Amino acid sequence: MKKVRITVMKITVYRELMDRYLGSADQPCPMEEGESYVCNGFSRPEGFCESAWTSVAPYVRTLSEGGGNFFDGWMKDPKTAMISCADGFRPVTFFLEAMEEDAEETGA
Predict the structure, then answer these.
(1) Fewer CB within 10 Å, N or C, the chain?
(2) Alpha carbon distance, N-terminus to C-terminus of the chain
(3) Count of beta carbons in the 10 Å neighbourhood of residue 39
């Protein structure tokens, strides 16, 4: 089973939607662009947003098991994926990549 690196690529904030629709839960996303996590495909990495994990977990699992080529080859590298969390107010975009056995682990 391969490890998978998850890198935070972009955090977007839709302030106009938050002002119009969001109740009292106006909390900023705790992640930071450039931050990365390494996981084994089964467990959410420590410190990784629980809500975001539900969005990326199926792709992480597939990559860790050697799969890829999601959505008929939309990524240049079939062992990667670009996935966003389901937060409609503060979506975060993640780059997922299967790591080679001897790849160095960096990040959180």
Answers:
(1) N
(2) 20
(3) 21
Please answer whether residues 39 and 63 qualify as being in contact, where contact means their C-beta atoms are separated by less than 8 angstroms. no
Q: Are 11 and 94 in contact (CB under 8 A)?
A: no
pTM: 0.87
Q: How many residues does the chain have?
A: 108
One-letter amino acid for residue 93 of the chain: T
DSSP letters, 57-92, are HHHHHHHHTT---GGGT-SSSTTEEEEE-S-SSS-E
Which residues neighbour 100 within 8 Å (Cβ) at sequence distance 6 or greater? 2
**8 Å CB contact between 48 and 6:** yes
d(CA 20, CA 38): 36
**For residue range 15-60, what is the model confidence (pLDDT) as tens digits?**
999 999 988 767 778 899 999 999 987 899 999 999 999 999 999 9
Task: Name the strand (E) or helix (H) holding 10.
Answer: strand 4-11
